[in-house]
Write a structure and sequence with these properties.
Elements: H1 2-5, H2 9-48, E1 51-53, E2 60-69, E3 72-81, E4 101-104, H3 106-114, E5 125-129, E6 141-147, E7 156-161, H4 173-199, H5 203-215, H6 220-256, H7 272-293, H8 295-299, H9 301-305, H10 321-336, H11 347-380, H12 384-395, H13 398-428, E8 434-440, H14 446-453, E9 458-466, E10 480-483, H15 486-492, E11 493-497, E12 505-508, E13 523-527, E14 533-537, E15 542-547, E16 558-560, E17 574-581, H16 584-597, E18 603-605, H17 610-648, H18 650-658, H19 663-700, H20 710-729
Parallel strand pairs: 3-6, 4-5, 10-16, 12-15
Antiparallel strand pairs: 1-7, 2-3, 2-7, 4-6, 8-17, 8-18, 9-10, 9-17, 11-15, 12-16, 13-14
Helix pairs in contact: 2-4, 2-6, 2-7, 2-17, 4-13, 4-17, 5-6, 6-7, 10-11, 10-19, 11-12, 11-13, 11-19, 12-19, 13-17, 13-19, 19-20
Length: 745
């Protein structure tokens, strides 16, 4: 440190820049490492409020309801007092609500005030709010609703609140592992490169100064320690500053929130492991980089002082691409040949391993590939700027590694993020133009059934029944009745051919095999309200039907006209299915209307997995945050590297100016030196990333194997990055000749 502060102002500025760069990197690292803590805090609170059934001695009964509000779950717990006495209390609540009372989360109260249409879902007078310890996050839609036992026909006794594991996990454990891996590729790998770049600022000037120390008698070990000590102190100062910056950032973002997730500031405080990684790991990395970068000056000081010829970059890193792309390309080839490699346990190991090998190969192979390409281009170049740029790149290809690696890894990781979003979107969304809502008939009164048919947006009502079975039968053959006319059948399906009104017919979809396939002539019993049974015979006539995705109209079911329906079928085996359009606004309006008519019934929005939709929003938000952090890191590494390289080459620029090089020539040289390695790395990242994304989709078993829609967007971003990089390189060249930059040797 005495050597550093005793030199000129440039040394102190370099130390400050190294500290600021480390602070930015540590803040990004703390943000990524705190994401699991935020999710774990959410899951711990939701597990603590989970109602658990008890015995008949309980003073309360309860029913849980989980409904979609857009892509966010609206969770309600109906409680009813059955006898005097105290009841269990969930976290954040001082007393369970009585009949007609409601305890709601602050976010739900805001929605009730802003949208009066959903008040039917939360019937009663709001008497209080749920405190933070009883909510997963600040945007949680949750309510405890007091009612009477008569309004809860299927209620169970309430024993206590709290379970060991949350049933309302914000991200499933398997998906969380994928999220961690993707964030690691997007953020942590570029971050490692960025911290290494910050630790090696002004590497040529520092190497010459260290070589001078070595030549006047300092030992090789002490010479390396001088450089490592400077890097260590800058990284340590930057780590402390980065932690403080992250804490302020966490306070702001926690109050603003992200789409799908809004946590409490305390959830985002870094834990002990995060602090250890940031305050100990990052300085340790800087120490190692400082030791390694000073080896040449310590072992060969004469060649450093006289700028001896550098060794060509090692090519062994490029060999990592062979197994990486081999596995990824193998899965893609199997998909092209029509084979499905999904479902095996080996792919869960091979795909992540090949992704890591490919990413490492892109980083380590960039320097030798750039040197080889520069040598070929310089040999055939006719223009002076291109010749100068390529010869310089050929001599020092390692600088391209520092300039382009962060952005290359960002593009590669972005492709993986696209694959994760495409895979989750496939399993979360219904693609049919119609939306169905299934409600148990035994939960509805006749008046409610009539009112549900008049809900705005409902186009059709279809009633279905399942055949009776003995309780002890675990696996049984059964038949379903769908009560509808031919016109109704055509309205709720993609295709229905051969339907004849006034006759019982069997539905058949040749695309979908049926586990229980009723054969013509077989007879199935259906329960009656009076306790008896009625037998229905499977007809020989069939209707060629093609339903929309998952539907009440299933292959093998029997279509029964309303006029031929046996009277008095038991409601316990019946389901009322409402049908509407699939537009988001329509679905939201129908769900609100159902809640206004029958707030306590359980509604199954067929094909909509509300928890998966909420999870998709959270994952998309976290991946966007990761990509933004990766972009910040990549751009910061690029700016720092380009600026540092421009400062380091002032002596070479001065020599070219004295030889008569024009300003335009020098600017073109600078632009080409940046754009060529960046273009090579980004082009390879797009191809390798798209193949890696495709292999992930192929092994995931989804319907989409090739993300053609994301490829043009990624290509356009790459072109934009290259144009911006070229323009940003122009101001880095100055033709002013400083006498101290003229090298006498």
């Amino acid at each position: 440190m005495r050597l550093l502060w005793g030199t000129d102002r440039r040394g102190r500025i370099r130390f400050l820049l190294m500290a600021l760069g480390s602070a930015l990197g540590v803040a990004c690292l703390a943000a990524v490492l705190s994401i699991p803590s935020i999710l774990a805090a959410h899951d711990a609170r939701t597990a603590a409020r989970e109602p658990w059934p008890g015995d008949h001695a309980s003073s309360f009964v309860h029913v849980k309801r989980n409904d979609p509000y857009g892509s966010q779950p609206l969770r309600r717990v109906f409680v009813a007092r059955t006898k005097p006495g105290p009841g269990p209390l969930p976290p954040g609540v001082s007393q369970l609500p009585e009949a007609g009372e409601v305890l709601a989360s602050p976010k739900l109260l805001e929605l009730l005030e802003a949208h009066s249409g959903i008040s039917g879902l939360v019937p009663g007078r709001v008497t209080g709010t749920i405190k933070a310890e009883g909510l997963g996050g600040q945007n949680d839609l949750y309510a405890y609703i007091g009612t009477t036992p008569d309004a809860l026909p299927h209620a169970v006794p309430l024993g206590h609140f709290g379970t060991k594991y949350s049933k309302q996990e914000i991200v499933e454990p398997s998906t969380l592992e994928i999220l961690r891996f993707t964030l690691g590729c997007i953020v942590l790998l570029p971050l490692t490169i960025f911290l290494s770049v910050c630790a090696r600022l002004s590497s040529e000037s520092r190497a010459r100064r260290l070589a001078a120390l070595r030549l006047i008698g300092l030992s090789a070990k002490d010479t390396m320690r001088v450089n490592a000590g400077e890097s260590l102190m800058s990284a340590l100062a930057g780590a402390l500053l980065g932690i403080v910056g992250y804490l302020g950032f966490n306070e702001v973002v926690a109050h603003i929130g992200l789409p799908g997730i809004r946590w409490y500031p305390k959830d985002g405080w870094p834990d002990g492991s995060t602090l250890a990684v940031c305050l100990l790991g990052c300085p340790a990395l800087a120490w190692v980089v400082g030791l390694f970068s000073a080896r040449r000056a310590a072992l060969s000081p004469i060649s450093v002082r006289r700028t001896g010829e550098r060794k060509p970059p090692r090519k062994f890193g490029t060999l990592l691409l062979i197994p990486g792309l081999g596995v990824i390309g193998g899965y893609c080839a199997l998909s092209v040949m029509g084979r499905d490699p999904s479902g095996g346990s080996s792919s869960s190991v091979l795909v992540p391993a090949s992704v890591l090998l490919t990413g490492a190969g892109l980083v380590l192979g960039l320097a030798p590939v750039t040197a080889w390409l520069a040598e070929r281009m310089a040999r055939g170049a006719r223009a002076l700027p291109l010749t100068l740029a390529m010869r310089r790149t050929e001599v020092d290809p390692g600088s391209s590694l520092r300039v382009a690696t962060g952005l290359v890894l960002l593009v590669f990781g972005t492709s993986l993020a696209q694959g994760v979003l495409v895979e989750l979107d496939q399993v979360s969304r219904r693609t049919a133009p119609l939306q169905e809502y299934a409600i148990g008939l035994d939960e509805l009164r006749p008046a409610q059934r009539r009112e549900l048919g008049q809900v705005r947006g409902v186009e059709q009502q279809v009633v279905s029944y399942t055949s009776w079975r003995r309780m002890e039968e675990a696996d049984f053959s059964h038949a379903d009745l769908v009560v509808a006319t031919c016109a109704q059948l055509s309205a709720v399906t993609e295709r229905a051919t051969g339907c004849v009104d006034g006759r019982i017919m069997q539905l058949r979809d040749e695309r979908t095999p049926s586990d229980y396939d009723p054969k013509p002539g077989e007879r199935y019993p259906f329960a009656l309200k009076n306790g008896g049974k009625v037998l229905v015979t499977v007809p020989a006539e069939r209707i060629d039907v093609r339903p929309w995705d998952v539907s009440v109209v299933t292959s093998g079911a029997l279509l029964v006209p309303p006029s031929l329906l046996p009277p008095g079928l038991a409601d316990a085996d019946g389901t009322l299915t409402l049908v509407s359009g699939a537009e988001e606004g329509t679905v939201r309006g129908v769900l609100d209307g159902i809640g206004a008519v029958a707030p306590t019934v359980e509604v199954d929005p067929v094909g909509i997995v509300v928890d998966s939709l909420a999870q998709l929003r959270v994952i998309r938000s976290l991946l966007v945050v990761g990509m933004v952090l990766g972009l910040v890191i990549g751009v910061a590494a690029f700016v720092v590297s380009v600026a540092d390289r421009a400062l380091e080459r002032r002596g070479q620029v001065a020599a070219l100016v004295l030889l008569g090089a024009r300003a335009g020539t020098l600017r073109w040289v600078q632009v080409v030196q940046v754009v060529v390695p960046l273009g090579v790395g980004l082009g390879a990242a797009v191809v390798a990333g798209w193949l890696a994304e495709s292999s992930y989709l192929i092994t995931g078993g989804g319907a989409v194997h090739w993300d053609w829609e994301g490829l043009p967007v990624l290509g356009a971003c790459v072109v934009g990055v290259m144009v911006a990089a070229g323009l940003a390189s122009v101001p880095m060249v100055r033709r002013h000749v400083d006498p101290e930059h003229i090298r006498r040797d």
